[in-house]
Amino acid sequence: MSDRQARKKALDVSRSFIVQAPAGSGKTELLIQRYLALLPTVEEPEQIIAITFTRKAAAEMRGRVLESLRNAAAGKMPRESHQQTTHRLALQALTRDKEKDWNLIKQPQRLRINTLDALNVWLAQKLPLLSGGVAGASLLETSAQELYSLAAQRVLYQLGDSTPVGKALEEVFRYANVSVERLEDLLSQLLPTRDQWLGYLMTGDENELVENLEGALHRLIEDEINILERSLPHKISDELVSLLQDASLNADKSSLDKFVPWQNLNNLPSADWRHLKAWQAISELLLTKKGHWRKQAGFASKHADVQRRLLDLLTSLCDAEDFRLALLEVRALPSAEIETAQREVLGALRSVLHYLVGELKLLFVERNTVDFVELALAAQKALGDPEAPSELLLTLDQRLQHVLVDEFQDTSHTQLRLLELLTAGWEQKDGRTLFLVGDPMQSIYRFRNADMSLFLNTRHHGIGDIRCEALVLERNFRSRPAIINWINETFAMVFPQTDDLKTGATSFSPCEATRDPSSHQCVEIHALRGTDPAEEIKCVADIVRKEHSHSSTRTIAILVQSRRHLEGLDEQLRALDLPVHAVQIDVPKHQQVIQDLIGLTRALTHRGDRIAWLGILRAPWCGLTWQDLHELCWDDEKSSLWALMNESAKVARLSPDGQNRLLRTRGVLQLAFQVRASQSLARWVKRTWMSLEGPACLDYSDELDRADRFFLTLSAYETNGDLDDPIQLEQRFADPRIGADAPRSSGIEIMTIHSAKGLQFDTVILHGLGRVPPTDRGKGMYWLGRLNTDGITDTLLAPLVKNSQKHDPLTEWLKRMDRLKDLSERARLLYVATTRARERLHLVGHLPLNKMPPSRSLLSYLWPCVSHAFEQVDGEEKDIGKQQSMTINSTLRRLDEPAQAPAWAHVEPDIEPRPEFEWASQTALQIGTVVHRWLHLMGEEGEKHWDVERITASADQFRAELILLGVEKRDLPRATVRVVKALQRVLEDSRGRWVLADHAEAQSELAVSIVSKEGLEHLRLDRTFVDDRGVRWIIDYKTSVHEGGDVENFLNSEVERYRAQLERYALAMSKLEDRPVHVGLYFPLLQAFKDWEPNLLS
């Protein structure tokens, strides 16, 4: 069927369709045409529901429907043929509008075009009691992670209790073999996906749960065996059976037990789960451990005839690739039955999660809020069940006639369940229709529980009793032919040949370019090799400069996989004076202007917040040096900074410039405190910032916009003129979506690939192709909704991350499926990125010398097509170790000439009582003492003799030492966990293991004495050694943790704080030996290392 025929057929309003609409194919126009075509067929416009997944998409569709109606009413005839179709349908809709007196142009609210979340709200509000009372609660627009973590903490408070929940927690804790903090993370991470597992896990009792799980396992095994049986070449069946029988008697001892089932078999067994071991024996006979055909027979030499027969059979199978892949799938299958230990922990986890969800619901009630998941569950509860429908569902069944769904490829199981409920009473050809539009090649939202296999399954089986005819659009109206041709050639190799519902992989559907060729069109590969990743940043900046020079009105997008791949790029582009605009990239609280304003707000509302006040004095509007800050407060750790600023003796110790700066700042703040009562918090902070000349400290014009957004947000957090919870304010600015701008109509945009979905740009630069995404740390529970051969969803799950000392085939199989789904989605992510380009596409990748791309990098998918470009690049090897160690930017940003302090600022004010403030808690110091002692022991024994399990097993000893040091009983559990966590992170960190490794002249806690101006000084070096280059390393351990703010800035401040101490150590060692010296701070809890070459001239 041609593209034109498919589009025409899609407007047959008597039939249901599922439409595959690739990138740039004009799917929104088709949705609008279908919607307009449906209006003349209904009695009321509310009988049609159009569902989108974003507010922007809903607003765009509603706006374009109304625009079409207005243009038709005004008699504006468009020129383009597809727009003429829309115009004709709009005229017909207007005729019906006039007949029924709808007046849609003036009453657009009657157009039911909404997001799925808006639909859930509407459903929940219709039956507020039945929906669980969530209808009146406010909806959490951003992450509910704070509530998820708090719910997990409340549950873990029960650990050690003799209650049923406490005992269940103990079982889960023992089985998972993780720290308490890690268990909290695992449990909290399950809550955003509770709609996926809650109904299944809580149905019936524990025995029924196990029965359902084993039933799903049996169907999985039988489905895979059936695939293997169909792929097995029939001509080898008899010989294969004979060889398997021989193997059951004569195979090598190491594998003989795997062939035992064949001692009693004369034929290939049936595809029954009970025969799994027999079918798995075939892969043992034919395949190596790596999954390739064997080249040697696994029989003793005395069985030469059997060896020859097996090798002959293997030779005949060299082209039987489907058979080999099916063997691999069967070999990887989990056991057919749930072990006793797993049954017990499954029951325990079920109890814990039941309690966890209950705690979350209580938090929702306490805060009068809900998340999107709770809203979706409430909507389904309001509808009831097809077997026992609610009054609302029965009413909807009578009224609802047509449902349109956009972006159907990103549907989750919960969302599909809602569609099944809404269409539960529908029958084929009863006049009611479904119209589902999406592109499985653009499904990239697994992290939001999207399951692309649902699109493929619906295409085969429909939804409920409604079968949807499949249509495919082929014409691309977006990109130039050069880009389309490259995409067609490349992704035909990247995507699989056929759809795979099991792994969520889709085959490639090529497109036909409709735009004319252009002399500006291009696809360019920028291949870079070497040891300096900064070369990639420079390359991207150079591309942007050249593209922008051609036309300042051209839209340019730099797309990356994650925000961490953008380090240094923004600075490079701004240095070139290019108009850069980041879309949901920067975490607001990491932006300097937001950091300064949060610090100013915290300081003004809490005079005892010493860190915030230090920030005020260090900020550009004051700009004290580290030396001046030290002089102000080094001998008084308890008084507030505001009190110290008002002590003449303290101020007199500062440099003349420092005194002038502090007095000016103090004068502004004194005046601010005097006028506090007369204005709102946001206005007060803003006026104070303006008086401090905050705007003059900004480097870029967009920072002023950020400041304005901060003050708007601050006004929402004000309670009775005060800030009740400063931490909550900081958390608000931890989300990149807060205050994020939409992409502009021209200029240079920087965004993630996910943010670019649905957008288009003249030029696209895909940056960081050779980089890999963050490694998955594991999940609290692995589960999979698997569509069996009958099109019915079976759920498979395994509780928690298993103890590494035990092997759990089901967990491993689920992890494997999770990895395969992730790899499939990454191919689709690459497709989405490349199809954003209209005119020009640049692909930038950097690889080390003589290295292949990492397996999970986007470059690995393109490698067959782009490897030639990298083969032609020699690259350059640079010694960047020293460069990396010297990247600390200690430049002090401040106003050059601060205004002269007013005369009244020199008058000694009344000093308020000094609030107590503890610089570092006693418990933190005691934790540091224990960590240092054990790091000393690990260094003496050698890191090879230590592993995470040994650290965990030593927890009681850590606890005993903390007790001896005087840690209070209430702080013991968390302090013990902190020690375990610090030591474990050292072993999990390559740099940490390097510090503890067996270097030359390695010593821990080395005592050194030197004679200085102050007399004899006794120093103790945490760790020192000589590396392979002959450099003496001196490393100090710091068990600091960082609560909020920018980690890099925190680390840099710690360097400055301890610089003098480390350089004194280095000076001492330089007196004892003649060799280069490096010093460093190692932070176990942060897995961070900061090193530098000390100044030994003093």
In short:
The chain is 48% helix and 13% strand. The chain is built from 41 helices and 27 strands.
What this model shows, in words?
This protein has about 1100 residues and is α/β, with parallel strands linked by helices. Helices cover about 50% and strands about 15% of the residues. The protein contains 41 helices and 27 strands. Strand 11 (about 475), helix 20 (about 480-495) and strand 12 form a beta-alpha-beta unit. It starts with a helix and ends in a 6-residue tail after the last strand.
What's the helix and strand layout?
Elements: H1 3-9, E1 17-20, H2 27-38, E2 48-52, H3 55-74, H4 81-100, E3 112-115, H5 116-126, E4 138-139, H6 145-156, H7 164-176, H8 180-190, H9 194-201, H10 206-231, H11 237-250, H12 276-286, H13 304-316, H14 321-331, H15 340-367, E5 369-370, H16 372-383, E6 384-385, E7 388-389, H17 391-399, E8 402-405, H18 413-422, E9 433-438, H19 453-461, E10 469-472, E11 475-476, H20 481-494, E12 512-513, E13 522-529, H21 534-550, E14 555-560, H22 569-575, E15 580-582, H23 592-605, H24 610-618, H25 626-633, H26 641-645, H27 648-652, H28 656-674, H29 681-691, H30 701-716, E16 718-719, E17 722-723, H31 726-732, E18 747-752, H32 753-756, E19 761-766, E20 781-787, E21 793-799, H33 809-834, E22 837-847, H34 858-871, H35 881-885, H36 922-941, H37 948-953, H38 955-965, H39 972-988, H40 990-996, E23 1000-1012, E24 1015-1026, E25 1032-1037, H41 1047-1072, E26 1077-1083, E27 1088-1092
Parallel strand pairs: 1-9, 1-10, 2-3, 2-8, 4-5, 8-9, 11-12, 13-22, 14-18, 14-19, 15-18, 19-22, 25-26
Antiparallel strand pairs: 6-7, 16-17, 20-21, 23-24, 24-25, 26-27
